[in-house]
């Protein structure tokens, strides 16, 4: 672990996936000298070439097994439904004492999909940086992405404390605040704070694309009225979000149920001309915005 003048947190790390999040981590490890060796694996040669061109890896391979061999820390940075097959492949190649973590947007599925494939003596510390942009790929990353954001870790109760602390320290070095919580709780919280807004954005933009041609043109022209903020969210990677929806199905269906009830209540209030009810709702929601700004998460 680190000592004065030596920033190395993990002698050798393996990044599986090198898009927005994976390449941001690679940049962070490089910038701050947090490792001696960054091994990167991705699905396509084009991504690996780009990573090398950017100087973000010491070795690259299309074979995840090759990348994780001898790694002290393995970070899965791929869409969550790809985890199970990758874990099955790399499990036997992991060295004793290695830590496996990830950055996926939902957490119980990570425990269900990855843990069964890890040998005794390998530690699983699932993680989620609550930070991102709508951009994808190795060129989209930047080392400062995680600064001032939360990194949530969801280890199981029997996880080695030193492994949890090592992953927590990595996120603190990234400039994040670290919170530890139970995986299912994470999934419920993120269903409301991240997954629901994303689905609302996809739906609003999809509703607009279903409009007749003459209205569609006007939608883009006058998008500053609010629509454009939803287009930013709706431009996010479709595979990533497909996987999040299917992997956090229960919590998302629960929150979508509540949301559609509340939306129907607004619809009824408008139809009935219930001014007080509308004003009351819109006033209540303003307080949440102040809370977000106070927490420096705007
Ligand atoms: P991204 O930019 O699209 O990059 C995905 C990476 O995963 C690429 O390097 C891709 O390789 C690789 N990959 C995709 N499918 C694969 C497969 N089946 N097997 C092996 N590698 C595969 O995605 P990202 O935004 O970095 O997201 C990665 C993870 O971070 C996801 O689990 C997501 O839930 C989580 N996350 C994202 C955000 C965000 O705002 N984007 C925020 C927090 C957490 P190729 O390029 O070679 O195809």
Describe this structure in words.
This protein is an alpha/beta fold and 298 residues long. The chain has two domains: 12-181, 3-Layer(aba) Sandwich (Rossmann fold); 186-294, 6-phosphogluconate dehydrogenase C-terminal fold (Orthogonal Bundle). Helix content is 51%, strand content 13%. It is built from twelve helices and nine strands. The strands form two sheets. It has a six-stranded parallel sheet, with helices on both faces. A three-stranded mixed sheet has the order 7-8-9, covered by helices on one side. Helix 7 (183-209) crosses helix 9 (227-234) and helix 7 (183-209) crosses helix 11. It is globular and about 65 Å long. The two termini are 34 Å apart. The model has no long low-confidence stretch (mean pLDDT 95). Bound molecules: NADP nicotinamide-adenine-dinucleotide phosphate. NADP nicotinamide-adenine-dinucleotide phosphate binds at residues 17-22, 42-44, 47, 77-80, 82, 103-105, 129, 132-133, 136-137, 237, 240, 244.
